[in-house]
Amino acid sequence: MKINPDVIIIGGGLAGLTGAIHLSKKGLRVTLIEKSEYPRHKVCGEYISNEILPYLLWLDIDVLQFNPEKISTFEFTIQNGKTAKTKLPLGGFGISRYLLDNILYQKALSSGCVILKETVTAISFANDEFSVVTPNQTIYSKLVLGGFGKRSNVDQFLARKFITKKSPWLAIKGHYSGNITNDMVAIHNFNGGYCGVSKVENNIINICYLADYATFKKYKNIEEYQKNVLYKNKYLKSVFENSNLLFDKPLTISQISFDKKQPVENHILMIGDSAGLIHPLCGNGMAMAIHSAKIASELIMDYQSGKITSRRILEKNYAAQWKKHFGKRLMMGRLLARILANKTITNALVALVAAIPVLLSQIIKQTHGKPITVD
């Protein structure tokens, strides 16, 4: 039997699930393909800006009822002990991907979205129609959204440019019990990387860090690496020594690429990390993923209604909207990463923003958006 939804979404992370809810709410037939089960833990900083709250409420999702940790302050520390701190312009909240993804998953199901636990093995586009192949079936649709995350087998058979390059970065994440400042998200610098520390729901501490593989591979295991490298930042040392890991072992993901990606490839509208990965220093990838799904969904509705008259215009408009909303943020993330790779410049910058906190607030504004309005 030939299955013909209005839209196929590949990947059930934040962007994919949000797109599925939005389009289903608007009456489209949506099939989402995701290889993993829910709920599940994922490598993620788990801080999200309040900018997305109005949009989530429009989707009939009130995340605040699940008691996420409210975040209002940002702190940045470096190895020499210097710190800079400021109030977050909009504020945000800490919520685990284990909880948030499952909230969105349940909402997508109740909205009428068909969710298939499958792995996509091939995609082709011919005669203005996609064929999406899984081990059990082939699904056809005029439109496909790509929400398959940072790095996927789908990137490989689409032959995306970034996938051919080796990346020096890996990320490690764990949930911990312990005591830290409740309303703060902190980024702690160490030799070869950065570590984010903040609370999520149920008084759980999320610790997620980005590490340079060349530095990491000198050590036998994660614990040895942390003690020999991360502990040189006294703030990180204190966090780890006064916290207990709640996982059996930390989660890891390698080959994380911050190279530029195209928001449209092979006629697929890429959303979330599939379209572009913001550096953890900017700390707002979760909000970007959700916002990108909103942009793509609204344009698809315009295309379905005839307001957008061709696929070419749809793709052009989405690429332009992606650049408008996220281009500056991604550029700022790459710029900050290059600046902070130089210890001398980093020391001078932290000393400056520590003395003039408004400067740090202005930097944060460059990587966060305004509250998302819904027509």
Description:
It is a single chain. The protein is α/β, with parallel strands linked by helices and 375 residues long. The protein has a domain at 7-40 and 97-165 and 259-367: FAD/NAD(P)-binding domain (3-Layer(bba) Sandwich). 35% of the residues lie in helices and 27% in strands. The chain has helices at residues 14-25, 53-58, 97-110, 153-157, 213-216, 222-228, 234-241, 285-305, 311-340, 343-355, 357-367, and strands at residues 7-10, 30-34, 47-49, 69-77, 83-94, 114-117, 122-126, 129-133, 138-141, 143-146, 169-178, 184-190, 193-199, 205-212, 243-245, 251-256, 264-265, 268-270. The strands form 3 sheets. Strands 3, 4, 5, 11, 12, 13, 14, 15 and 16 form a 9-stranded mixed sheet that branches. Strands 6-2-1-10-18-17 form a 6-stranded mixed sheet. The protein is globular and about 60 Å long.
